[in-house]
Design brief:
By secondary structure, this protein is an alpha+beta fold. The protein is built from 11 helices and 5 strands, in the order H-H-H-H-H-H-H-H-H-E-H-E-E-H-E-E.
Length: 434
């Protein structure tokens, strides 16, 4: 019997460590949707460590204390799994606490349901294992429920709130329903708050994810509206230009007659003025063909007018002909970058010129947008908005970066000093075809 007990302790530790690591990985990477490195075999390795450690503790100390194992597991996870930024470390610690609460609540529910029955040592061991496996399955099902291609990571406040609720309810259940220092000795009523806690956390998690998805959907709608507005203006300008060109062609015979008359009369000054006016009329009838890409031209045309209305100018050169990314992605990139460039340029006292250049290099397109800015911009940090309604802004560059990365491109930002201030540059590389 002693051999069975020792083997049982190792088995419980092995399954617990594996389940705990698995739940932590799923929680951090798929529920909280934070960046996590996938270390092959991490759950199994930690399971083996938990099993050996629990056996040694029980053999030489006469009991099992999981706190040192938790601390060791968290330290190893920070070193192996998470990017060691402050936010990601906090998210990882919350994922560890969340996982412990999930397993503890499921374990409590399993033991409370069978509390009235007389249980053998083997049965207790099987109930432990059932609780661990049920918790792992529960979190895996949550992962399936919240899975989505356009998910955003949960905010730190949402993560802390979810973890806090799970920890508080778990502590209350343990204090109120545990009848000894061992989890198997819980009253039958403990199943109700444990299951309610699991359900509540699930609902809160789903609500958080759905709220973020609704926000993303609104952003996509706004981008679509921007694109459609730009397209409408582009088509209207093309229609007006085409009408004006037809009228000029119709009147060309009369224009030539007038110019011949001025030339024959020696009125060269009047002829020069007439040619100047005629050239302006021709310029006003030029169809919008800036880059060779209809979508980009529509957006650039609108931003040119917007820049001029605000005392700036947008100069473009190069071609985007052959760029075949989605209209929404291109609108996201150009609209946000040009809006930011114009916003920064109009706040300077220097020459307010925004430069946009584009060219194809192999299977990629290179787009460079540069603008003057009054102050130095730290591109290594989140760039704050200078707009007064900051609550509704400041997400432009995040949207741009996400859209570019989603289609396999890159975004590089830089800010360098110039004679009259600073020049901010955004360099975008996009695949020519999707």
């Amino acid at each position: 019997m002693k051999t069975i007990a020792q083997f049982s302790i190792i088995l419980i530790g092995l399954i617990y460590g594996t389940a705990f690591s698995f739940v932590t990985l799923v929680t951090l990477g798929d529920l909280f949707y934070r960046k996590v490195r996938r270390v092959i075999g991490f759950p199994v390795i930690t399971g083996v460590i938990f099993g050996i450690a629990e056996f040694l503790q029980n053999r030489f100390l006469g009991g099992v204390d999981l706190l040192p194992l938790y601390l060791l597991h968290t330290a190893a996870a920070i070193f192996l799994l998470a990017d060691r930024s402050k936010e990601n470390i906090i998210s990882l610690i919350c994922a560890e606490l969340f996982s412990g609460c999930m397993i503890g609540s499921m374990q409590t529910a399993v033991f409370s349901v069978t509390n009235g029955a007389k249980r053998s040592f083997v049965q207790v061991t099987l109930l432990y294992l059932t609780g661990y496996l049920a918790a792992a399955l529960f979190v895996f099902l949550l992962k399936r429920l919240v899975r989505s291609e356009d998910r955003e990571p949960l905010g730190l406040l949402q993560i802390v709130l979810l973890t806090g609720i799970a920890c508080v309810v778990t502590m209350l259940v343990n204090n109120s329903f545990t009848m000894s220092d061992y989890i198997p000795d819980v009253s039958p009523e403990a199943a109700i708050p444990s299951v309610l806690m699991l359900m509540s956390v699930s609902v809160l998690l789903l609500l958080s994810v759905k709220t973020d998805q609704a926000k993303r959907f609104r952003e996509m709608n706004e981008l679509n509206e921007k694109y459609m507005t730009a397209q409408a203006k582009h088509f209207e300008q093309s229609r007006v230009a085409d009408t004006g060109m037809r009228m000029l062609r119709h009147d060309m015979k009369n224009h030539i007659t007038v110019m011949n008359g001025l030339f024959d009369s020696g009125k060269t000054d009047e002829l020069g003025e007439y040619l100047k006016e005629l050239g302006t009329a021709f310029a006003d009838t030029q169809s919008v063909n800036i880059t060779g890409n209809e979508i980009a031209d529509a957006i650039i045309y609108e931003k040119k007018n917007y820049a001029e209305m605000n005392g700036a100018s947008l100069v473009t050169e190069g071609s985007l002909k052959g760029l075949e990314i989605s209209a929404v992605t291109l609108c996201t990139v150009l609209s946000n970058l040009l809006d930011n460039a114009i916003e920064a340029a109009v706040q300077t006292d220097s020459e307010r010129v925004i430069m946009l250049s584009a060219k194809r290099s192999g299977s990629f397109f290179y787009i460079c947008i540069s603008n003057p800015t009054a102050n130095y911009v730290d591109v290594s940090a989140d760039i704050p908005t200078s707009k007064p309604d900051s609550a509704g802004h400041g997400l432009g560059l995040k949207s741009v970066r996400k859209a570019i990365e989603k289609c396999g491109g890159t975004l590089e930002l830089s800010c360098k000093g110039s004679v009259s201030g600073y020049i901010f540059t955004a360099e975008v590389i996009l695949p020519a075809e999707q």
